[in-house]
Write a structure and sequence with these properties.
Layout (H helix, E strand, L loop, with lengths): L4 E4 L10 H23 L6 E5 L10 H8 L3 E4 L13 H13 L2 E4 L2 H10 L5 E3 L7 H4 L9 E5 L6 H14 L7 E5 L5 H7 L8 E5 L3 H9 L3 E3 L9 H8 L4 E4 L14 E4 L4 H13 L1 H18 L2 H16 L8 E6 L1
Parallel strand pairs: 1-12, 2-3, 2-12, 3-4, 4-5, 6-7, 6-9, 7-8, 9-10, 10-11
Helix pairs in contact: 6-10, 9-11
């Protein structure tokens, strides 16, 4: 959309669950590295190498080596550096991430927390901000017809942060069970039985288990609902929040991690203190009781995402970042080699 030509340089999967596996992955990447080196030597080198989400368990096995050898600018997006891994067996891979971030022409960060983390760990890193975004097209053609008392959440059912969020949501709703609400749950996964047990105390009809749904169905379900309720424990930022707001739903979440990057508290939703179940339940109750506030936030939420967090807006922002850091020559950044690490 920004006028560049993008090639997927490799579909090699570099993720390694353990340091021992990482060494094996490196060996397996050798043939692809040789292929790319030969192609670049033959004149098919890109004007820029773009790597998404390199971190200690998923280093880029190609870009840093090739870019150094061929003088190609390197860009990262959502690079992550975890200082606590420096004293572990992951230290050699951490060092590679640190060198990659330091040597990159620019590192694009989506949240303030991530950008500050990179700045503190690698002071020489060049960092630019890009706000999280989604493709708003499916939502722009959908006219919301909300039931103000229908809460909805869309989330996988798995251990860890997701399960913690489901548990917090169930506890919060239990404290406002006297209010007129229902909850639609879109999602499935290995912990579905455990999630259902969390909500077993609610009377029949309160919880609507919708299971896994396709993208079009989710748009429709969001459009039928009044409030998006998901605590967001440990969320990097949560694209589901942007999708809900694009569908015209105010969000109730925690003010934690990267969530404030995608929800404007007091304007497009309510964010409560991390771990405060009473405050979280109260925020849901506030929107259930105040129809005019809910409606006002719903409209603001839709405007916010469609106008400021769309694919078109992001395309323009990325193009401006590349030209600012790589150069103003119109031909310089036309051909991008790309890899999702």
């Amino acid at each position: 959309m920004g006028g560049h030509t993008v090639d997927i340089a490799s579909e090699f999967r570099s993720f390694s669950p353990t340091p021992e596996a990482a060494a094996k992955v490196e060996d397996e990447a050798a043939s692809d590295l040789q292929r790319l080196r030969a192609a670049w030597s033959a004149g098919d080198k890109p004007d820029l190498w773009f790597c998404y989400h390199p971190y200690y368990k998923s280093v880029d096995p190609f870009g840093p080596t090739l870019c150094a050898a061929f003088g190609v600018p390197l860009v990262t997006a959502e690079a992550s550096y975890s200082p606590k891994r420096d004293q572990t067996e992951w230290a050699p891979y951490q060092a590679r991430i640190g060198a990659m971030v330091r040597d990159a022409e620019v590192n694009i960060g989506f949240t303030r927390r991530d950008r500050v983390g990179l700045e503190q760990a690698i002071p020489k890193a060049r960092i630019a901000a890009l706000e999280p975004f989604i493709d708003t097209t499916p939502f722009e053609g959908c006219q919301p017809r909300p039931d103000p008392t229908r809460l909805i959440t869309v989330a996988m059912m798995r251990a860890g942060d997701k399960m913690q969020s489901y548990a917090m949501l169930a506890q919060a709703l239990a404290t406002i069970r006297d209010r007129p609400w229902t909850l639609a749950v879109v999602g499935d996964g290995p912990m579905r039985g455990a999630v259902e047990r969390l909500f077993a105390e609610f009377e029949p009809g309160r919880i609507d288990w919708l299971g896994e749904r396709g993208a079009d169905d989710i748009v429709q379900e969001l459009g039928r609902s009044g409030i998006y309720a998901w605590p967001g424990c440990g969320e990097a930022y949560g694209l589901a929040y942007l999708e809900a707001q694009a569908a015209g739903l105010p969000v109730v979440a925690q003010r934690t991690a990267g969530v404030p990057e995608v929800v404007r508290t007091g304007l497009t939703g309510l964010l409560t203190a991390e771990g405060d179940i009473v405050a979280y339940a109260s925020a849901i109750g506030e929107l259930l009781e105040d129809a005019s506030k809910r409606t006002e936030m719903a409209r603001a939420a839709r405007r916010f995402v469609v106008d400021e967090r769309s694919l078109a807006t992001a395309a323009k922002a990325i193009d401006e970042i590349l030209r600012r850091y790589i150069g103003k020559n119109d031909d310089r950044t036309r051909h991008l080699g790309s890899i999702a690490s």
